[in-house]
């Protein structure tokens, strides 16, 4: 096998591992870019791997730059399927950085190509993207509906990997809707897939996290505490900032409910992680809990910074949806519901 073919095989493996939550460090990923033989497809693969490396660290802007470069390289190489997959990754990255309308633009472009390719797996991923936008709009029922459409497609396609990913999304929606039995059912099915045919350390940690969320909602504090501590440890081992921030925020809320003396300290640590990742919903939860913590101890002045931060975040989170984007959402809904492409 030639050096070029060996490198191509290495990139394919790294790309799969990166997508499954185990990307190389950014420095290692950047080094790959130096060895792509000036071939657009190999360059694109290396750029997408770099995007995953930055996304894993919640460095959204750097991830978006890498994903965009990868998408353009795939386009130059005439790789339509890979170009579409990278457009979807770009959309999710912008969603994570609180830019849902930009995400919609990329998913609209992706849907056009997916329909031309008659690729239902790509369409299922776009369903998941639309569901996340609805979460941002506060319509959790609509979000669940789109994730259930994606799950229906995943079952028909027989893709365990896609099915596992969608099951976690459905479980998350079910938690928000307080449908805990449904959430536990989805988590059990996803866990079984991870024990059999799917390997993804990020998802394994997420299952334990969502179990902790469910048990916290059901006021099973002791069980929730163990699960959220475990989820945080796994996310820390995976060096996954999103997972660490979510697990530690939920754990801090449990500690607060239990009246543990270290709740305030853990809340500050969770707030720091949420700020590092730019995850404003978690920042708001931490600040609300910190206000509760300080007021319960009659430390009114110490509560003021959290109160001011909460007000500031609420102001910056408000945005208006233009008529253009309302129409775009409607078109995505209509087109994505087409079962026969």
Automatic annotation (TrEMBL):
Protein name according to UniProt: Tetratricopeptide repeat protein
InterPro entries: RAPsyn, TPR-like_helical_dom_sf, TPR_rpt
SMART domains the UniProt entry points to: TPR (SM00028)
Organism: Iodobacter violaceini
Lineage: Bacteria, Pseudomonadati, Pseudomonadota, Betaproteobacteria, Neisseriales
């Amino acid at each position: 096998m030639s050096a070029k073919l060996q490198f191509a095989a290495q990139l394919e493996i790294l790309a799969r591992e990166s997508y499954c939550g185990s990307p190389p460090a950014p420095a290692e990923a950047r080094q790959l870019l130096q060895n792509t033989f000036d071939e657009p497809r190999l360059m694109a693969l290396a750029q997408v791997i770099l995007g995953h490396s930055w996304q894993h660290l919640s460095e959204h802007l750097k991830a978006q730059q890498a994903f965009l470069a990868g998408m353009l390289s795939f386009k130059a190489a005439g790789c339509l399927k890979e170009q579409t997959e990278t457009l979807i990754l770009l959309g999710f990255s912008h969603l994570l950085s609180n830019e849902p309308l930009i995400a919609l633009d990329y998913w609209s472009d992706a849907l056009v190509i997916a329909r031309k390719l008659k690729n239902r797996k790509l369409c299922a991923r776009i369903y998941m993207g639309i569901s996340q936008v609805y979460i941002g709009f506060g319509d959790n029922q609509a979000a669940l509906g789109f994730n259930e459409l994606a799950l229906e497609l995943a079952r028909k396609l027989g893709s365990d990997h896609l099915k596992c990913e969608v099951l976690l999304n459905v479980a998350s929606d079910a938690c928000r809707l307080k449908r805990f039995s449904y959430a536990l059912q989805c988590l059990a099915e996803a866990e079984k897939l991870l024990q059999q045919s799917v390997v993804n350390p990020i998802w394994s940690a997420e299952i334990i996290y969502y179990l902790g969320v469910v048990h916290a909602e059901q006021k099973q504090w002791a069980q929730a505490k163990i699960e959220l501590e475990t989820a945080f440890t796994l996310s820390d081992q995976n060096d996954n900032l999103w997972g660490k921030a979510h697990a530690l925020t939920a754990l801090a809320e449990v500690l607060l409910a239990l009246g543990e003396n270290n709740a305030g300290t853990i809340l500050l640590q969770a707030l720091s992680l949420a700020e590092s990742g730019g995850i404003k919903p978690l920042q708001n939860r931490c600040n609300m809990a910190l206000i509760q913590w300080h007021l319960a101890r009659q430390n009114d002045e110490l509560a003021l910074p959290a109160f001011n931060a909460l007000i500031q975040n609420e102001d910056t989170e408000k945005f208006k949806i233009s008529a253009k984007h309302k129409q775009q959402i409607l078109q995505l809904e209509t087109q994505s519901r087409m079962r026969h492409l």
